[in-house]
């Protein structure tokens, strides 16, 4: 009897056509159906946990596309053509723990996109066209443990954007055109902190600069980025990482400032022709020039001081020696018997002096 009732209830469960719903209503599978718009999601069973929409042709979603779907824990939108998702799209999905946007056409993300996803544990953004991760985007994702940004067009990331991810354990960053210059320095520090906490990061292979091509940024020593601090000083501090400005790319070579010879070489070669890089001129060469001037000035001052001290010491020694010689000579002349009295001879010499005076 109860079996029949249960069967009756199940068959009565709503399921948005043309999707397939599991018998307990927890999994709603709309994958691979060629959908270019969402099925009627208000028909979703109240107990549904997973909504699977992969391998469709979805390209646009409205702001309220997933409104009232707070029971969902998993949403799979992989292998679609989504290119521009509205901010607040997932804000009602407070129970969502797993979101997959793998293999879409995302090139930019609204910084409010992941609002309301405080319980999200896994976020897959791999294989899109993302070139940046905006500040604030990840701020609410404090439960996130797994994040993939692999296979995008990222060349740098800002540390501050990732700092809210206090529970992150696993980060995938592979297959991006990373530029291992000053813009990546702070993020490298953050990666090291993540590794220290026991987290995992896959290989971050540098694409630029040329001499670091193919190197894993995890193995590039932090010291290679020390020159960045000087660059920041030169640029008036905080604005050291002007992502997006042409000067932030390509032109700064971590190796070059390691010694002044290479430095001068690259300066002179850029001066020698091809008006290639104004940036090298405006941002890079002044550093080396000022550095050289500073070195010369400091060296000059130090040498000067040392020289003066040596001259003074020599002069003092000479004067002292000649005075002493003269004094001894006179002493011997006047008091031949006092001879070479040592030690307590001094007292007598003093007396002699006073008696002479
Ligand atoms: C969400 O639910 C509320 C009330 O339960 C309803 O008024 C509203 O129309 C629903 N929104 C959507 C987009 O289904
Ligand atoms: C969200 O999850 C909690 C804990 O699993 C559950 O008690 C609650 O009913 C869920 N909310 C909805 C709307 O299903
Ligand atoms: C990405 O999605 C497109 C379109 O859905 C599909 O043809 C392609 O095979 C997918 N690529 C991968 C690597 O999944």
TrEMBL record:
Q: Where is the LRRCT domain?
A: 176-229
> For this UniProt entry, which residues form the secretion signal?
1-21
What SMART domains has UniProt attached to this entry? LRR_TYP, LRRCT, LRRNT
The UniProt regions of compositional bias labelled Basic and acidic residues, in chain numbering, are 348-357
Q: Where are the stretches annotated Disordered?
A: 239-278, 336-357
Q: Does the keyword Transport apply?
A: yes
Compartment(s): Cell membrane
* Record-given protein name: Uncharacterized protein
Q: Which organism is it from?
A: Knipowitschia caucasica
